[in-house]
Amino acid sequence: MEKQYWQSLEEYKELNEPSVLESKEPRPEFSVEGLDESEIKGTSSRRDFLKMLGFSVGTVALVSSCQMPVRKAIPLLNQPEDLTPGIPNYYASTFFDGTDYCSILVKTRESRPIKIEGNEMSEITKGATSARVQASVLNLYDDARLKKPWQGEVESSWNSVDREIMMALKSHSQRNRKVVLLTSTIISPTTKELIKEFITAYPNIEWIQYDAVSYSSIRKANELNFGKSVIPYYNFDKANVIVGFNADFLGNWILPVTFTKQFSSRRKLTVGNSDMNRLYQFESRLSLTGSNADYRIGIRPSDEGAVLLNLYNEIAKAVGGQTYNAPAASIDVKKAAADLLKNKGKSLVVSGTNDLSIQLIVNAINSLLGNYGTTIDLTRPINLKQGDEEDMQRLVKEMNEGKVYGLLAHNVNPAYDFPDRSSFKSGMKKVALTVSFAETRDETAQLCDFVCTSSNYLESWDDSEPVLGSFSFTQPAIRPIFNTRQFQDSLIKWIGLKVDYSTYMEEYWKAMLDQHEEDVNNFDEFWNKFKHDGAIHHVFDQTDQPGFTPHELKAVASKSEGIEVVLYEKLAIGTGKYTNNPWLLEMPDPITTATWDNYVCVPVGYADQMGLKHEDVVKVNGEFELPVIIQPGQPQGTVAIALGYGRTSAGKAGTGVGKNVYHLMNTRKGYADVSGTTVTIEKTAKSFPLACTQTHHNMEGRPLARETTLPEYKADPGSGNAQHKIDDKDNVTLYAKIDYDGIHWGMTIDLTSCTGCGNCIIACQSENNVAVIGKDQIRKRRVMHWLRLDRYYSSDPDNPDVYHMPVMCQHCDNAPCENVCPVAATNHSAEGLNQMAYNRCIGTRYCVNNCPYKVRRFNWYDFVNNNKFDYNLNSDLGKMVLNPDVIVRQRGVVEKCSLCVQRLQEVKLTAKMENRAIVDGEVQTACSQSCPAGAIQFGNLKDEKSVVSQNNKEGRMYHLLEYLHTLPSTSYLTMVRNRDA
Amino acid sequence: MYNTKVRGVLIQGNKTYADVSRDIIRPMDEKAPMWWRVSIFLATGALFWGVWGFYNTISVGIGEWGLNNNVAWGWAIINFVWWIGIGHAGTAFSIFLLILRQKWRTSINRAAEAMTIFAVMSAGLFPLIHMGRIWDGFFIFPYWNTRGPLWDNFNSPLFWDVVAISTYFMASFVFWYMGMIPDFATIRERTTSKIKNKIYGILSFGWIGNARGWLRFETAAILLGGMAAPLVVSVHSIVSMDFSVSVVPGWHTTIFPPYFVIGAIFSGFGMVLTLMIVLRKLYRFKDYVTDGHLDAITRILTFISLIMGTAYLTELFMAWYSGSEYEMFTFMKNRVTGEYKYAFWTMITCNAIIPQLFWSKKIRKNITMVFIISLFINLGMWFERYVIVVTSLSKDFLPATWATYSPTITEIAIFVGTIGLFLLGVLAFFRFVPTIAISEVKGVLKETTTLKSFTDE
């Protein structure tokens, strides 16, 4: 109690009354009767309050300031001259995996390769890439990679491995026992030279090249017709009419990147240019190429010979060539024949069937049409696909007979992909010395005594000559991450040379240039230029177009018994080399939109007849089970199954995914062909979940992917696009239009050029650190890709028209997502970008709902450092692929296409430092840069001369869902099919 | 003119003031009955399951729900709107009827208000748990911050939502609590337990029941009522704008605000009916919550049901009249005849057709039937929200993105958990708070008991 002061005696008395308050009258409203003093005055004083406050704030601060993990960054002791943190370095290099070829630029940041770009200096690929090329950078950071050489089941060291192998090689060499060097197709002149030298050192070694999917019959046919065992160079860009027979040249056939570039270059309609090629595709499954065909005809594989011979006869009759007896085919080829005849010398017939009699007919047709020397160039053969099945079959036979004492397997995996893999495996057991040069312990490497772990191609030196006279350079973009050694260095070591492969290569080139007496006055200058440009074009040995020697043509009538199976390479997975690449596993197939698995594509009619539903499991040949996808366009009497799955030793993502079907290859005629085997299909009671990114395939009559035909387009460039005018007229607004100052980023997507190859999806994923979420999540329709390919079918389900439509954020000027975000996490930039502030997002997902294009992606889980999502973002190695310019998104935030804002920023800064305006084409998004078809264009809409502005002036231009008045910055150009009116 | 006694006797049984106090407080003094203990046990169990659902969502991620890239809102939003709708009854009852001077409200308003509070609490949990980053949820409040010129987006209906719901909750709570002050004082006076005396003493804010106090109490009630009345309309209008502001076919429609408010009152009254039937049965309150009261509610429901039917037809008509193929698809194909036709027709049957049975006096008088129909209304209103949220999102503009949605165990757990929370609140209310406003009932006791009961007509 406080000390009391009094002024008068009265007051003193009053203070000393027993209870001051009790004596007073109760207050009228609030009775204090019966309450004691503390209740009236309250017990806690200001001091107490402050104490409590201090204590609680202190506690909260203590509890919340839990220790954060300390991460140490160690600066470089000696900063390399050309390495500035934050500034990327680009190295020209070459992607060649034994099958696919692409000239590339490797983008490195702080010495880490993080992105693959196309190399525009290359004559062959001209800056384009494919999805597999884009994704190959992730293979560098694959956890399945071996970190050391292996001996048996354990890691070893180079010294011991080298010692043992050299001892064995020498002993076999001394006793002249056969050792086989089994490689994939080698297109490197230096490596070929090295192998020659290796064989000189060990003369008992035989070199065999092996391709999992082979086109050796093309070589054989050309040998018979022209005396040259080559695959010629095809000029699809010079052909007005292309007739393809099971040749998926836009997807997988020989040089798809190049062929896509060539093909789409003739599908660019601009004001004043209505020239367009026409593609007829006769095929036994709905391939990517078929989906782009102007006329697509489904045939059974066994009909192909007859149809081709009929086509030949049709043409021969017209030009007066020799006709052959052809079995009647139900397919009418008159229209294709007439078109071909109208375009003699400007047409092209190709077949992807690995069958000599078929390739001979194809050659004969092309010869009749005079296509050699114009659209087909035999003087510049393609060096890919040099494998020969005969050699391989002989090898397996000899291995089983015990005649082979050593097997050195480089870049091949026959224990997985050889049609008769069990006999290959049993043969391997009889081989005394087995060495693999694989990067991972794949199926073959597991059976080998030694694994001389190779470096990734991004860590290696090499050169390539994919097409005669077109060279490109492979140089390391990073030092080997692990204790690995590239294949060539191993050979050099075993020969006993004391150089490394890069020096060896330099010397080889010096010698070669000398030999050809080339005028290179300064070799170093040449060498540096080669390394810098990555590609040079120089034909050392000019040859003439050889003359055509006719050969007997024949075709057998089809037997219509059983179901014919067509095997194919998926655009993502290919032959199975990338089955552990999570990006590719999760890339939706452009046709089926399925991810992660392989399956049996069955025709619509057959499914009805058998009562099969999507995801029902069938037993194939009574030996393995696969789910079905009912595939429109799959010809009756056929089914299609993708190769490349069912790996037993791929790595954490790919092992055990799907089923291996290599044994269904047709080897009866001596060539390993993907078609020609018949199978039995039994329905089972089971079903198997498939993860498709799209389940509705019909546009419901909505004007989404708009189309017209060439004659209609010529009459009216706005044909098929009438809705645009209506919507344009209806879209009135009271609000002022946003006026951008200087820059308004925009994109145009030409549906006529777009082939739907899916390269853009992976390019975007690689650039923007998009997470892989696994099959279950894809099945829940939560794919994270910022860019998706919508695929629609129309008309006849047995042979539908297919539409590929890339859809990413449209960057609407009147964006529905922006005004519904309560925290303004998504907003509009002064350059027309719809941008996301991830740190501000609280994840209400209203924007996801309100986006009519449904391009916004929500982070349903933590996709990083989460064992439930054990892909590249769950390992320290895998995370090295992340682009440091793009934030990795946290759980609970929404993300979406940013139009690669980090790239825009970089170019803007460069232009600003150089005090100039941005040049059109200087800024490219990841998707537009690598698009092999040039369908995606990016630029400044405020620049009247930019490509995007020009495209937007076209009659074909429209915005997706423009009636909503969202004012997208992205526009689409109507798809034009070159069909007769 | 105001005092025309059209309603007749509101409280039956010739009660004295003492009877009223005794009757209503009796259940609070008795030992907790068996049904109460069992219910508490079940409700707590449900709540714990819901807590697991919360834990799972927050610790693992929203991915534990069945949502996808296309249907980004699901059960959480459906249940949020459903609860908010139920939470309309209290305020609608008390405030509208207070302003309209409907004396018969006095027997029901307390329970209805309590229901509002717990329903709004349950509802409020959904926007919280629904956030991807709940730990950053405070971003939604407009406060001065150190993040530069970063402010809320005042254009966003979700922001309006936060304001509307928190305002509504606070106003409803204050209104409810203020009404209870005299009753708490009554308990304080009557109880023999020291603890209860203390607790209710604090809760009653020292109410001594003097004339000035009553004068101010009455004034405050009318004032608060007047201020809160617009909230009844505003809160669900704003909730409806969560949908109608969007471009999604099936959401983008101007009918939504009145349609949602009416729907909310409909479901609120339905829930009041359900609860009051249970309450009067268990606590033998038939003299206070008379058949006449129930009859009045059923009549209101019949009328609202007609409005609901009209709204449904209007939506369909507008879909056709708009000439938009997207609208037509959502309404005619997807809802009326398509994949979601069962949900759609359940909604129509429960909300627009079944309540029409109340036209029959026989059914109105049959309390079992009334109870069953009230349950159908609650079910139908849940399906209405399901139809709105899921059918619109799952098949919108681009068919390539169409996806279906079904809830996961986590979402169901959260919903059941909120039911548990609601029941727990209601049960606590039954036990610790006078379920009928004693003071207000006393106020209407004298002038109505002398007349003939209108239920006997």
Report on this structure.
The complex is a heterodimer of chains A (981) and B (457). Chain A has 981 residues and is α/β, with parallel strands linked by helices. Chain A contains 31 helices and 40 strands. In chain A, the strands form twelve sheets. Chain A has a seven-stranded mixed β-sheet with strand order 5-4-16-15-14-6-7, with helices on both faces. The model of chain A has no long low-confidence stretch (mean pLDDT 87). With 457 residues, chain B is mostly helical. Chain B is 70% helix and 0% strand. Chain B has helices spanning 17-29, 34-60, 75-86, 88-99, 109-130, 157-190, 194-203, 211-244, 256-282, 291-322, 325-337, 341-353, 361-365, 367-394, 409-432, 438-449. The longest helix of chain B is centred in the middle third of the chain and has 34 residues, at 157-190. The chains are: A alpha/beta (981), B mainly alpha (457). At the A-B interface, strand 31, helix 27, helix 28 and strand 35 of A face helix 6, helix 8 and helix 11 of B.
Give Rg of chain A in angstroms: 34 Å
Q: Which architecture name of chain B does CATH use? A: Up-down Bundle
Q: Say what oligomer this is.
A: heterodimer
Order of helices and strands of chain B: HHHHHHHHHHHHHHHH
- Assign an overall shape of chain B: globular
Structural class of chain A: alpha/beta
Largest β sheet strand count, sense and barrel closure of chain B = none
Number of domains of chain B: 1
Give the uncertain stretches of chain B in residue-range form: 449-457
Number of strands of chain A: 40
Number of strands of chain B: 0
Distance between the termini of chain B: 22 Å
Q: In angstroms, what is the radius of gyration of chain B?
A: 23 Å
CATH topology of chain B: the name is Formate dehydrogenase/DMSO reductase fold
Helix count of chain A? 31
Do you know the CATH architecture of the largest domain in chain A? Answer: 2-Layer Sandwich
What value does the average pLDDT of chain B take?
Answer: 84
Counting H and I runs of at least 4 residues, what is the number of helices of chain B? 16
Strand content of chain A: 15-25%
